[in-house]
């Protein structure tokens, strides 16, 4: 008796896994103790991440990736962890997170991983906006737009890009991307408020003509 490395189900030696149709890879009983079980470890690590116990989750994720470096689900989890686990206020955590998502996407290009990448780039852009590094913030916002494959994440990236242009003083471009953010997420109260405040500021500074 052994386990399927794809889904963790029990299989007999030489058999095809009835659960996932795996190739019939067999892991002997005497190796099971040191072999991470996908079915057990992924939910455990995911729950730890959801409860913001990032260091504990990272221990599980790293151990599994040592066993199977092609496990895209764990690279995706590690991307979430690395963005949140940093003990300092540097942007290294964003770069580490992006690298994990790239590895996940290399193994399996799916919308979930693309959106996680997009959100990370948008968050990275906000980090840079707060530090007035608008040139690089714009680059990150553009990368966020490139990876987004759902309306809400695309709207988030457009809103960030609008803020960058607003800080630049590029009014026409700021208007364009505030409008785009609301086009893709029309009920978002934050984007509505951002656009309203933007127009109020423009009216105050330049008069009623936009």
TrEMBL record:
InterPro entries: TPR-like_helical_dom_sf (IPR011990), TPR_rpt (IPR019734). The keyword Transmembrane helix does not apply. Keywords: TPR repeat. The keyword Signal does not apply. It comes from the Archaea. TPR repeats lie at residues 155-188. This is TPR repeat-containing protein. It comes from Methanobrevibacter millerae.
